[in-house]
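Q: Given only this backbone (361 positions), what sequence would you predict?
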């Protein structure tokens, strides 16, 4: 059984003009459990070390040995490398503080300082940076999702417009021509003109039903989530050439509309991905209640995928489907987990609070 690996210590670069002070700080950081990846007296060399070593945080003195002072170096580090900088300095003049603020430092500690003070500032700085990084990632994901959603919306509108024009438009045009012929020739009109009109109307009705079902299946509203999932599973199995098994608790109540819609769309997207990429033979869909949570599982025995690469594509907005599923889960107050092993299939799991129709949000 594999034991989880211990978290790696945060890497810190020390930029300090006084070598003896730098060595003392290095010892304190080591005692606190941090890894010191480098020590330098110059701002120019600090930039080189940051690019090469990629520390998690930079401890920066303001007065340095080189031409570049600590504030100028910190500004470049924040702008080009997006790393947190904590100033350790003996300078507290207002003009220096004003310049330092412009670099958006994650801490400012005046010398002399205690080990506890240093530990607190570093812990808070690293935590703030992690929160900032998560917020930035989430913001980028939302921006990418919004952009792709608008693109998908326009594509869907274009598809519907084409179907309306090419299918229904032609059918209605044919009926109009037939009616005009019947009016013009009256008793001399072809005997099968009426039956042809009936056939065209029936075809048009089928097209309307097909178009409406593609936009949103009526059984989701009329019959509930389980029948809708069974229907989409059978449809996907027919197109993808795989066997699908759908399991659900017979006693399940009608869930809140937003949950039913989100579950249906998540399964729809998962089945679409399986059809396109998985080369699966069997797919299982499981819908159940686990205490106060609703659990939805979609698993397959296909070729699997690289989960790290998938998450990276989702982060950069390259995978609209994954982003959409995650966003739907978040809006429900739940979470979406994806697991896969190359050659051994994949699993999509949604967990969210259990709510039936009429329950308050």
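A: Predicted residues:
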């Amino acid at each position: 059984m594999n034991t989880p690996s211990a978290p790696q210590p945060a890497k810190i670069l020390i930029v300090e003009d006084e070598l003896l002070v730098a060595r003392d700080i290095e010892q304190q950081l080591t005692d606190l459990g941090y890894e010191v990846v480098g020590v330098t007296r110059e701002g120019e060399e600090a930039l080189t070390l940051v690019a090469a070593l990629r520390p998690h945080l930079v401890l920066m003195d303001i007065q340095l040995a080189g031409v570049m002072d600590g504030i100028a170096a910190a500004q470049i580090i924040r702008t080009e490398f997006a790393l947190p900088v904590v100033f350790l300095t003996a300078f507290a003049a207002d003009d220096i503080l004003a310049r330092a603020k412009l670099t958006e430092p994650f801490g400012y500690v005046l010398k002399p300082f205690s080990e506890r003070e240093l530990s607190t500032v570093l812990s808070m700085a690293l935590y703030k940076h992690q929160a900032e990084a998560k917020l930035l990632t989430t913001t980028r994901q939302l921006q990418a999702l919004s952009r792709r959603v608008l693109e998908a919306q326009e594509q869907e509108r274009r598809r519907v417009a084409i179907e309306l024009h090419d299918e229904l438009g032609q059918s209605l045009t044919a009926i109009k021509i037939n009616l005009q012929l019947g009016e013009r020739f009256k008793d001399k009109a072809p005997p099968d003109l009426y039956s042809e009109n009936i056939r065209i109307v029936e075809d048009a009705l089928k097209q309307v039903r097909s178009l409406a079902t593609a936009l949103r299946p009526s059984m989701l509203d009329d019959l509930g989530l389980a029948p809708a999932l069974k229907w989409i599973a059978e449809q996907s199995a027919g197109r993808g050439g795989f066997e699908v098994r759908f399991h659900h608790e017979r006693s399940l109540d009608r869930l809140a509309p937003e949950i039913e819609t989100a579950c249906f769309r998540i399964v729809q997207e998962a089945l679409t991905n399986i059809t396109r990429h998985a080369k699966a033979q069997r797919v299982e869909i499981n819908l159940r209640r686990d205490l106060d949570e609703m659990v939805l599982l979609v698993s397959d025995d296909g070729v699997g995928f690289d989960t790290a690469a998938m998450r990276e594509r989702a982060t950069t907005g390259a995978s609209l489907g994954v982003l959409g599923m995650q966003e739907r889960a978040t809006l429900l107050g739940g979470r979406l987990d994806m697991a896969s092993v190359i050659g051994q299939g994949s699993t999509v799991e949604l967990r969210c609070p259990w709510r039936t129709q009429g329950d308050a949000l």
